Every structure is written in C-alpha cells, then in structure tokens.
Amino acid sequence: MILQALAFYVFAFVVMASAAMVVVSRNPVYSVLFLILAFFNAAALFVLIGAEFIAMILVIVYVGAVAVLFLFVVMMLDINLTELREGFLKYLPVGALIGLVLLAEILLGLGVIGGGTTSLTGLDKATPQVIAIDNTRAIGRVLYTQYFYLFQVAGLVLLVAMIGAIVLTLRTRPGVRRQRVSEQLYRPKGDAVTVVKVPTRGGV
Amino acid sequence: MTADLIRFFTTNWIGQAIVIVAQCLAVTIPLLVAVAYMTYVDRKVWASIQLRRGPNVVGPFGLLQPMADGLKLVLKETIVPSSANGVLFIIAPMIAFMTALVAWAVVPFDDGWVIADINVGILYLFAISSLGVYGIIIAGWASNSKYAFLGALRSAAQMVSYEVSIGFVLITVLLCVGSLNLSKVVLAQSGWFFNWFWLPLLPMFVIFFVSALAETNRTPFDLPMSEAELVAGFHTEYSAMTFGLFFLGEYANMILLSALGAVLFLGGWMSPIPYAPFTWVPGIVWFAFKIAFLLFIFSWTKGTLPRYRYDQLMRLGWKVFLPVSLGWVVLTAAVLQFGGWVPKL
C-alpha cells in the first residue's frame, strides 16, 4: 500500500512538473518532449487505478502517434525563440481563465463543490472490479452496445476532420511527373536487366 | 529451512524485490548474449550468401568476434559534436536501447514463464514498440546534422506508417483468440503446426513479417541509414558506446519482433507435433528455434534484396498493406461470426 502511494506521488509529481515545463520551456522541441513525459506518467497513473486498457491506449495513440507528428512538425520549424516569448504575457490571462474553468468543471463533476454527491454515476460501469472482469472487455461491452451511435459519430467526426485536412492541403500543379506504378511493374524484364550465368567461384 | 526461504521470497518485500530483479536479469542477460551472437550469425549468413568466410579469426570459428567488437565499442572515445544538444544526444541511444529491452517483460517463454502476465500484453508490446521511434528521432534532431536529421525524419515516417498495418495484424490475431494476453494467444494455437495461426492467417503473417522488417529499419527498408545518400542516417554522429546502444537496440528489436511473430503465428512454446518425443523437448527450446528461424529470414532478406525507393516504401505501407490488412480484419471477423467460431469470452 505504501509502495502504491509512493508510486502515485512520484508519477503525479512528474506529470505536474512536466506539464508545467511544457508551458515554461523556451524551446518548442523540449515542450513536446515534456508533453510526452506527461502523457507517459498519466498512463502510469491509469495503471495504478487499474485502468490498464486506457493506459495502453493513451501510450499508443498519444505518445506513439500524435506526439510523434507534433515532434516531426516542431523539429522542422525554423524557430525564432525571442518572437515566441513575446506573446506569453498577452495570452496569460486567457490561458489562466480557461484553466480555472476546466478546474471548476472537474470539481463540479466530481461533486467536490456544489452537489455533494458524485454526478458521474456511470463512472464505475467502465471500471468494474478488476478481478471480476478485465477492463478491455468491460469497455467493449458498453462501447459497442450502449454507446454504439456515439462511437460511430466520433468516427464520423474524425473522418470529417481528415477530409477537411486533405481538402485544405490539396492543390493541383501542372507539369508534375507522376510515378505510374502499373507501368513500372509491367515493363518487360528484358528492358531492364540482362541475366548472366556466372559459374560458382569463377566470377564474371 | 526451505519453508523459511519460500516465505522470505514470497511475503517479505525485500525477498520479492530480489525475485523481481533476478527475473529481469534472467531475461536480459540471455537476451544480450543472443544479441551479441545475432550479429555474428548475421555476418556469417551474409558471408555464405556472398561466398565469403565471414568472421573466422577471433576464437574458434570466429566465435569470440562479438566480444571483441563489444570491447572495442566500450573502449573507444564517445564524441559529442560541439553544436549538438548534449543531453538529448546522450539520452537518445538510451531510449532506443531501453524500449527494446522493457518489451520483453510480457513475452511468454514457456507455459507460465513470463515476468508480467498482464491482461493487455499485446497492447503493451504495441505501445512499447511505438516508443522506439523516439530514440531515433531525438538522435536525429540532437545531432544537429543534416544527414542525421533526414535519416530520423525518414525513420519516423516509416515506423509510424508500418505500425498501422502491424496494429491490424494484431487485431486479426486477437479476434481469433479473444484475449490480449500473450500466453492465451499461444494456448489458443495448441495442436499440430498447421493449427498455428500462420496457416489460417497466412496473408497477415506475411504482412507482419514485412512490417517487422520496416519497423526495425532492416533491408529492404533501411532507408533511415542508407549509406549511399545519408552516410549512416540517424546515427551518423554517434561513436563508441552511444553507437553501440543503437546497434544493440536494433538487434534486440529484431529478436523481439521475431519473438512476437513466434508467439502470434508460430505457436510460441508449442511443439509442432503434439506427441512424444516432440513434447519432451522443453517449450523454451521450441520457442528459441522459432525465433531463430524468423531471424534467419531477417538475415537472408538483408543478404538478398536491394533497398526500396522511398516513395515505393510509403506506397507499400499505405496503399497496399493498409487496405489489405483492413480487409482481412473484416473478413476474419465475418468468418468467425458466421462460421460460429467466435472465441468464448
């Protein structure tokens, strides 16, 4: 028990510290790396409460895919560090406001302030007793039955975002020489290679 | 006396810690020896393909060559380029090496021989293997060199692309098993060798193996370190043990993906013929044979095939493997559902 508490405080401290470093650090590449560290420790916190499926999905989706693309883009930017710092004070009040609103929402949702009873009554449905049923199965059972339409709609939203991104970046340029794979594949072998029979240990 | 010892190792937290550390060492030390000898076997196989002898000077049949290479790497000077980002430059090879090692925690070597028998074993392996790209991309950026950076960008794009098809391969397998636990994946394949998943899921086995080649940056997909264009790709600026860690990590990753292939498609520790005398052979020996077989195909491909062009690589990943594997997931699900073979949950 004491080991778990210790682990919790270590992970929680690293999450908070690296989240702060995401905002504070001057170099955007460091920011993304600290963001990855924060994701990773948040996944560890999920493991501690027995939500191993969410933890793994967090690592696979956010650390393994989303953050790689972030890093990819940020590394290729030509960064002017002084310019980046200028907006910091200007956006600080707005950022703080958003942070406060989110905090209030979490506290309201958990019933710490206001209600007194927790309003998220379905919360324990997603994470039942770990021994009784593993939570991959538990999530599958509600996701594809009770929340089926919402799940499909989430998929559609992602599809719309994807098509939107493609439409925004699609441009047709004249004079582009394309690779025609079928033509390349159907080129007869005689055009490309000549086969020479080399005697073993004899050389050409 | 023995009862006392058993109580010490199962209840006392110091005893438990000793057991955990011993388990980790029992996996990592043979693994590192395997990595060392994989480099030797690799060079011997290429040498045979090219009608050469390969390493044959250090020790009998050159068997001590990996030790000599390792010693050389340790004793050389580690050079950090003056314009490189010092901290990240040193951390990158550590990440590359560590991610290749920690994944072994969930690999079952025999019935019950696994450090962490977790319910989400496949997802854990997938998550850890997706972290391997960070070592490479951080190395490329921290080196502050254009060759290293181009190599890192190629590698990141390549690994992210092929992870998608590996993901679908894993989904197909777990549809047939009904569990994410790797031991249960093996147990679901019990019986003759044609009951293993390689035959019913043959297209997925091929896709898995080719994607594994791309994930480990091996020929024909070794564009991140293609020496003709990029000197040595992402590890151009690395020397001595920092390079050594990348090298060890690459080989450990190859062995890991071969082990994953053996677990998912070749029945893990199962013997190919479920009767004596084949069942007398310990499971870990069969498992090692299967890994060695897949590793041999890794070396064979490297000795045989030329390198892909980059646009061909991306085309293969996104326009061939992704639709085929997606289609196969749908097909497998349909066959299981309508054939009445859905595994019991």
TrEMBL record, chain A:
The answer on whether this UniProt entry bears the keyword Cytoplasm reads no
Q: Name one GO cellular component term.
A: plasma membrane
In which compartments does the protein localize? Cell membrane
**Entry EC no(s):** 7.1.1.-
Q: Which InterPro entries match?
A: NADH_UbQ/plastoQ_OxRdtase_su6 (IPR001457), Nuo/plastoQ_OxRdtase_6_NuoJ (IPR042106)
Q: How does it sit in the membrane?
A: Multi-pass membrane protein
Name of the top EC class for this enzyme: translocase
Any stretches that span the bilayer, and where are they?
6-25, 32-51, 57-79, 91-113, 147-170
Keywords, sorted A to Z: Cell membrane, Membrane, NAD, Quinone, Transmembrane, Transmembrane helix, Ubiquinone
Q: Which GO terms describe its molecular function?
A: NADH dehydrogenase (ubiquinone) activity; quinone binding
Q: Which PANTHER family match?
A: NADH-UBIQUINONE OXIDOREDUCTASE CHAIN 6 (PTHR33269:SF17)
- Describe the task this protein carries out: NDH-1 shuttles electrons from NADH, via FMN and iron-sulfur (Fe-S) centers, to quinones in the respiratory chain. Couples the redox reaction to proton translocation (for every two electrons transferred, four hydrogen ions are translocated across the cytoplasmic membrane), and thus conserves the redox energy in a proton gradient.
Q: What protein is this chain from?
A: NADH-quinone oxidoreductase subunit J
Automatic annotation (TrEMBL), chain B:
- Principal EC category: translocase
- EC number in record: 7.1.1.-
Chain segments annotated as transmembrane: 12-37, 87-107, 113-139, 160-180, 192-214, 251-271, 283-300, 320-342
Q: What does UniProt give as GO cellular component?
A: plasma membrane
PROSITE patterns registered for this protein in UniProt: COMPLEX1_ND1_1
The record's section on InterPro entries has: NADH_UbQ_OxRdtase_su1/FPO (IPR001694), NADH_UbQ_OxRdtase_su1_CS (IPR018086)
- Identify its membrane topology class: Multi-pass membrane protein
Give a GO biological-process term. aerobic respiration
The protein's annotated catalytic reaction(s) are: a quinone + NADH + 5 H(+)(in) = a quinol + NAD(+) + 4 H(+)(out)
GO molecular function per UniProt: NADH dehydrogenase activity; oxidoreductase activity, acting on NAD(P)H, quinone or similar compound as acceptor; quinone binding
> Which subcellular locations apply to this protein?
Cell membrane; Membrane
Any idea what job this protein has?
NDH-1 shuttles electrons from NADH, via FMN and iron-sulfur (Fe-S) centers, to quinones in the respiratory chain. The immediate electron acceptor for the enzyme in this species is believed to be ubiquinone. Couples the redox reaction to proton translocation (for every two electrons transferred, four hydrogen ions are translocated across the cytoplasmic membrane), and thus conserves the redox energy in a proton gradient. This subunit may bind ubiquinone.
Family membership: Belongs to the complex I subunit 1 family.
Q: Which NCBIfam families match?
A: PRK06076.1-2 (NF004741), PRK06076.1-6 (NF004745)
Outline the subunit composition: NDH-1 is composed of 14 different subunits. Subunits NuoA, H, J, K, L, M, N constitute the membrane sector of the complex.
Q: What is this protein called?
A: NADH-quinone oxidoreductase subunit H
State the organism of origin: Reyranella soli
